[in-house]
């Protein structure tokens, strides 16, 4: 995928050696696995009407085709990342691929509602195992800063653009064949990725295994995250945030989370060492990621509804409408993000990137009921693609910056958990905001089209506000890149750090 890299000194280095070729091919394997997982999260949305008609789901029960996956995926990411640190990241990735591929077969041949929902839950388990360790493997495979920036740029493009590619793929498969193939297409991809993983992924260094997993901590965090995600996607969405059962479940999730934190502060071998939160850049990057993804994910969901319900696009046309976002994002992430991060530092790119994302969302917040693609959709798509291509590789770099080599899987799982929680919360909040605004406009005599458009516009404005809040966090929490001097500081902060390993604390 990449033909040359730029060293930290600015000189061009070819990577014709077998080791270099193997590392970049291994990155391709990791990104293929990531793309398969990300595609599956959005490709299903396009096919939901066909699934409902074929299997007889009601409108409320249809949500569980998505919710079952989200609960397993969001609940297990952090645990899966830590298990990778303590056992084998390569092994966890391979097991996840196997589980996801088998579950995809079960989804594809499902002839009943129960079979499909259960298979989707198992898919979520496989997706969590596969996704949680990817960033951790990347930062250990590419210790040199310029190489790592390039590799993270490639990963960020795949992770970010996969959603819009999924819309296009879902439209093509659903219209050309049938909904079963949105799952069955994963089978050859999963098998090919598994073969590549076996041949190309490096084995984990000795010494990680044998420390054991903090079982009470694992139970607490998995229960807290699964219950938290369930509360967001089910009771909150169905009964509202003020409902008694929603608040009760949220309270239990918070109690479990507090219990987990207490356990980590006292456990001899904690699942989540609290030292990882000493880095302001790591904490800030994860918070920014949650806010930005909350705005972006809800926008894409509601943007699809605007294109289909208001402008009359079909599934394929909707996917094509978001294609410019993917193209611009890819050009920046794959070609320029490494150079920009190496030249200016990851933190310096955050504000421009977030500002462009907010501008794209603000443009979408003015869409009229009689909107046109060239005037009302395309400018927003280009702004969003540019902003994500600039900001998200920098965010991923900063989010991994506080991890030691032994904690890389944990930091990777934390980033993915933050992203997933942000997406779930953003979708729930923005869908509620949109529906409430639409209901209010309808009650005041607005037409159906005008009321729906007004609801979407209001939600797009809230999306822009979430991204602006992320920009405020970037200004107030993130520290400036400190350059080579950070190495000495990091060594002082962690006397046990291996001086032969890359320093990942508080640097871009």
TrEMBL record:
The record's annotation in CDD domains points to: MFS_MMR_MDR_like
* Gene Ontology MF term list: transmembrane transporter activity
Q: How does it sit in the membrane?
A: Multi-pass membrane protein
Region entry Disordered, spans:
486-508
GO cellular component assignments: plasma membrane
Q: What keywords were assigned to this record?
A: Cell membrane, Membrane, Transmembrane, Transmembrane helix, Transport
Indicate what this protein is called per its UniProt record.
MFS transporter
């Amino acid at each position: 995928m990449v033909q040359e890299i730029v060293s930290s000194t600015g000189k061009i280095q070819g990577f014709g050696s077998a080791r270099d070729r193997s590392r970049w091919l291994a990155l391709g394997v990791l990104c293929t696995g990531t793309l398969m997982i990300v595609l599956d999260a959005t490709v299903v949305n396009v096919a939901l009407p066909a699934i409902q008609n074929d299997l007889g789901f009601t409108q409320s029960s249809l949500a569980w085709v998505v919710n079952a996956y989200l609960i397993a995926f969001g609940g297990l990411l952090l645990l899966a990342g830590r298990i990778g640190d303590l056992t084998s990241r390569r092994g966890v990735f391979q097991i996840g691929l196997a589980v996801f591929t088998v579950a995809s077969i079960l989804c594809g041949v499902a002839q009943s509602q129960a079979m499909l929902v259960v298979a989707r839950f198992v898919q979520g388990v496989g997706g969590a195992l596969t996704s949680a360790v990817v960033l951790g493997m990347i930062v250990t495979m590419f210790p040199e800063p310029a190489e790592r920036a390039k590799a993270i740029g490639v990963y960020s493009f795949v992770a970010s653009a996969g959603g819009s590619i999924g819309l296009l793929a879902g439209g093509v498969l659903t219209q050309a064949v049938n909904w079963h193939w949105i799952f069955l297409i994963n089978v050859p991809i999963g098998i090919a990725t598994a073969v590549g993983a076996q041949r190309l992924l490096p084995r984990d260094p000795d010494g990680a295994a044998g420390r054991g997993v903090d079982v009470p901590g694992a139970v607490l965090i998995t229960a807290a995250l699964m219950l938290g995600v369930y509360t967001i996607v089910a009771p909150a969405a169905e009964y509202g945030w003020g409902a008694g059962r929603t608040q009760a479940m949220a309270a239990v999730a918070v109690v479990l989370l507090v219990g987990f934190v207490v356990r980590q502060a006292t456990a001899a071998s904690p699942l989540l060492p609290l030292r990882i939160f000493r880095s302001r850049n790591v904490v800030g990057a994860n918070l920014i990621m949650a806010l930005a993804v909350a705005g972006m994910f809800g926008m894409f969901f509601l943007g699809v509804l605007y294109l289909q319900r208001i402008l009359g696009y079909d599934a394929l046309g909707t996917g094509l409408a978001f294609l410019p976002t993917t193209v611009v994002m890819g050009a920046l992430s794959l070609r320029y993000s490494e150079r920009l991060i190496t030249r200016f530092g990851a933190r310096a790119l955050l504000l421009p990137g977030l500002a462009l994302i907010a501008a794209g969302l603000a443009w979408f917040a003015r869409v009229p009921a009689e909107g046109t693609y060239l005037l009302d959709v395309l400018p927003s798509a280009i702004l969003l693609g540019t902003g994500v291509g600039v900001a998200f590789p920098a965010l991923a770099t900063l989010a991994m910056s506080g991890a030691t080599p032994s904690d890389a899987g944990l930091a990777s799982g934390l980033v993915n958990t933050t992203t997933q929680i942000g997406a779930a919360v953003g979708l729930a909040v923005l869908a509620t905001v949109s529906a409430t605004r639409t209901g209010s406009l309808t009650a005041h005599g607005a037409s159906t089209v005008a009321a729906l458009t007004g609801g979407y516009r209001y939600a797009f404005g809230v999306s822009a506000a979430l991204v602006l809040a992320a920009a405020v966090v970037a200004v107030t929490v993130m520290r400036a890149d400190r350059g080579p001097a950070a190495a000495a500081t990091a060594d002082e902060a962690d006397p046990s750090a291996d001086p032969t390993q890359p320093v990942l604390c508080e640097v871009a």
